[in-house]
Amino acid sequence: GESVGLHLPTLSVQEGDNSIINCAYSNSASDYFIWYKQESGKGPQFIIDIRSNMDKRQGQRVTVLLNKTVKHLSLQIAATQPGDSAVYFCAEKTQAGTALIFGKGTTLSVSS
Amino acid sequence: NAGVMQNPRHLVRRRGQEARLRCSPMKGHSHVYWYRQLPEEGLKFMVYLQKENIIDESGMPKERFSAEFPKEGPSILRIQQVVRGDSAAYFCASSPLAGEQETQYFGPGTRLLVL
Fold it and tell me: What CA–CA distance (Å, rounded) separates B87 from B83?
C-alpha cells in the first residue's frame, strides 16, 4: 500500500547547526510532496512543497530535496533556531489528488 | 486574512454522547478535508468535501461518523455515541482548488477527550 515514513523519530541539534530531516516514500506514482511543521498543541504549518518535476527547491532557511530514483525526500534547515523545535512531517498526495498521506514525524529539538 | 478556523479547540464528552466539530475554511477556499491524529502519530485522512457534497469519505469509519459542508456555514464533523477510542486531535484543512498539487492549509485542531 501507499505509505510515507521517516527515518528517525528524533533529531537533536545545537542552535546554529544545520538540520537534515529525512523521509522515504513508497509510492513511485506520487508526484507532489509537502513538509509540515507541527508545534505542540497546534495544527500542521506548511513549510515548503515540491513537485516531482523538480529535485530541489529553496525557501527561507529551508531546502527540500527530492530523489525520485530512491524515493527519498529531505528537509534541510539552515542555522537552526530554538523556534524550529517541533515535529516535522512529510506528506505526499495520492494519485487521486485528494488525501495527504503523512508519515509519523520527526521531533526536532534545538538546544541553545 | 484569517486562516482555517476550528471550534471548539477542546471538547470533553462522556461515552455515548455526541461530538460536533466545526471548521471554517480560509476565505476563498471551497474544499475541506478532515484528518484525525492519534498521540505520537501522523495525521490520517478521513473525508474530503466540497460545498454540499462529500467527494471522498474513504477514511471515515463506517459507523457513528458523518460529515457535511452546507451551502452556508462551516463544515461539521459529527461523531455519535462516542467511545474512548475516539479521543484524538481532529484537524480540518482547506484548499482553493482540488487536484494533485494543491496545498492544504490546516486549522489548529479540536482535541476530543472521551471520558
Answer: 8
